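Exercise 7. Predict the structure of Membrane protein from Planotetraspora silvatica.
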Amino acid sequence: MSESRESTHDDGEPRQPSKARRRRVPAIRIPDNPPPGPFRPEFWRSPLRGPWLTSVLGLVLLGGITVVAITGLLSYAAYNPWLPLNDLTPGKGLLGFYLFDWPTSPSWLYRLTQGTHVILGLTLLPVLLAKLWSVIPKLFTWPPARSLAHALERASLLLLVGGAIFEFVTGILNIQLFYVFPFSFYSAHLYGAWIFIAAFVVHAAIKLPRVVGTLRARGVRHDLGASLAETRPEPPDDTGLVSPDPATPTMSRRGLLAFVGGGSLALFGLSVGQSIDGPLRRTALLAPHGRIYGPGPNDFQVNKTAAAMGIAPAETGDGWRLEVQGPRPVRLSRAGLLAMPLHTYALPIACVEGWSTQQEWTGVRLTDLARLAGAAGAVEVVVRSLQKGGVFSRVSLSAQQVADPRSMLALRVNGADLSLDHGYPARIIVPNAPGVHCTKWVRRLEFLRESA
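Solution. The predicted structure, encoded as tokens:
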């Protein structure tokens, strides 16, 4: 590197630069000597990268991730975490500011919110990966931090990218029933969601004006209509996305977007059937519990089998009794329950993994059981299962859920006795409740006065 020299007067005194020249010379020169590899701008040679492509992908994610975030937060509210036993994220504090009493009507609401959350999240995966690819040069900016403001911007970017990867990866693993987490999925997914949402909102607020300006200036039709032969690198600008040494394009931007869109449509087609009863179930190849099980009355999804939950057949035999706790405790055999007034309703079961199905259930209303135990009125119920362990071996149902006439202790499904894997001898069915709150193998119901 050559040294700079000061010009001087003839008498040897340093010449003072003019004001115009002084404005052009930076006060501080930051050394720019990036290590070889991805930290050098010329390493990234794709001619497709640039503000336009990043803006298009970002706009799709802005709408999609907003819906995924809202439906995810609504689905968490469906657990009624303010009830005893239901709070899977203790210490959430202000993060639960929006929680409300989850309704029982319409009965398909949780089916819709959780199905949308899971299926749209899967559908957006190719778009997210394409967006990360489009901005990857910025992740290797050198030097890593030029100033305090730049360091803060880089930290927010780390939270945004890291949060997105964490939420998508843990969500997909949970959908596929790969419970490999060394932590509670529910707590980590909620806390991670709020970190990601905060970074996402800040990032969107800062970048949205530029996205709009880029799309207005360059338009949309020009790049979507350009063939491979017509594809050119975007003009250089200060974003750091445009390659200073672009390679010859091998794909048009239109082709790239079609490839990403095709991947999203494929994921949609391979998962949407898990939330829709009918022929589309055969296409739900990415859903472990989404496909057709058979023509029998009990041939539909089973999340946890009796064997997996440690249920011994003897526990559900003739000696099984339901304990109903209240001012007048009672014990009922299955024959005693079948002798009570029975009611039949077509209600969905929807699980956190995104699958759902509607079946016809027959059983005894929870209000009738509460009245039998002398607990009529506004009462909540704690439901306890025969299953061994697990966070959902006991759950609480709200007074609103108990009072709904469709809430029942189901004994039959589609006209047949429940199978052991579907909860025989009795299970809970509540409209618009997460599937894990529709407890199987019920052994005790504890009716309690509604908590304040």
